[in-house]
Amino acid sequence: MGDYGRALQFGVFLTPDAGAVDRALHVAEVADAHRLDLIGVQDHPYQKRFLDAWSLIATLLARTEHVHVFPDVASLPLRPPAVLAQAAASLDRLSGGRVELGLGAGAFWTAITAMGGPARTPGQAAAALIEAIRIIRAMWSGSGPVRVDGEHYRVHGAQPGPEPAHPIGLWLGVLGPRLLGEVGRSADGWVPSSGYVPPNELADKHARIDRAAIEGGRDPADIQRIYNVFGTITGGASRGFLHGPVRQWIDQLTELVLEYGMDTFVFGTDGDDPDQIRVFADEVVPAVRSLVTDERS
C-alpha cells in the first residue's frame, strides 16, 4: 500500500435534515463558492427526519455551479438499479456532468423491510449489489436492450438511457471481502467512513481491492479511494484523530494520502457547520495539496 499517485479531491458530507433545509442549502453554496470538489448526501429513506436524498441532490445541483454531488451511499434495496441508473444519468445531464453514484448493499434491514424493501442476508445483499452494477453499467452504455437475469434483479429488454453527460463514477460503500473484491473488478471507487474503517484497517482492505483489480487486468491506481472523515478543526490542542488544529489536519490528511492510500476526503462536521467547512476549504485543502505535490516530486 501507499500513495497511488491520484489527483486529490475534497468535499463535504451533508446531513439531509428535513428540519434544517436552509442550512443544507447554505452549506452547499459554501462548498461551491470555496471550490470544493464534492458534496456527499446520506441516503436513508427510512429515516423520518431526512429528506429524500435524490430530491435534495437535484436541488443542490440547481443551487450550485461547480461542485459534484453524490449519494453517500445510495440504499440499493430501496432503489431499483435500472431506475437508479436513469435518475443518476438524468441529473448528470441536467447539471452538466456533476453527478457521481455512491452505492451500498444495504443496512438497517428492519427499517428497509418496514418500507417494503427486501430482507437480505449478507450474502444475498452482496449478490444483489453485483447484479445491480451490471444493470447500471448497461443502462448507461447507450447500447441495448439490457438483459440481466439475476437472482435478485431481472431486467429483460429494458431500453438503456439516457446516457450520462460524463463518465459517472460508480463508487461502492462496502466493507466485506467479497464486495471489496468487486470494487477491484468493476467499480470506479471505494467509499469507506473513518468511523467504520479507521486508518489502521485501510491497508488490508486496499490489498483485497488491489488483488482483485490485478487479477482482472486493472491498474489499482485507476480506483478512486474516497474517505468520509469526521472530526473538528479546533484552535486548541489535539483531542485525537482529526480533532485538533489546522496543522494537525494538514499533517494527518497528508499522511492518509502518502502512507494510507486515500485520495479523496469528504468532511463531515458536527451540525454541518459552514465555518468549519470554510476553514477546511481555505486553510487545510490547499496546504495538503501543496505538501502532497512536494512529496511526490
UniProtKB/TrEMBL annotation:
Residue ranges of domain Luciferase-like in the record: 10-230
Record InterPro entries: F420-G6PD/mer, Luciferase-like_dom, Luciferase-like_sf
GO MF term (any one): oxidoreductase activity, acting on paired donors, with incorporation or reduction of molecular oxygen
Keywords: Oxidoreductase
Pfam families referenced in this protein's UniProt entry, alphabetically: Bac_luciferase
PANTHER family for the chain: 5,10-METHYLENETETRAHYDROMETHANOPTERIN REDUCTASE, PTHR43244
Protein name, per record: LLM class flavin-dependent oxidoreductase
Originating organism: Saccharopolyspora montiporae
Taxonomic classification: Bacteria, Bacillati, Actinomycetota, Actinomycetes, Pseudonocardiales
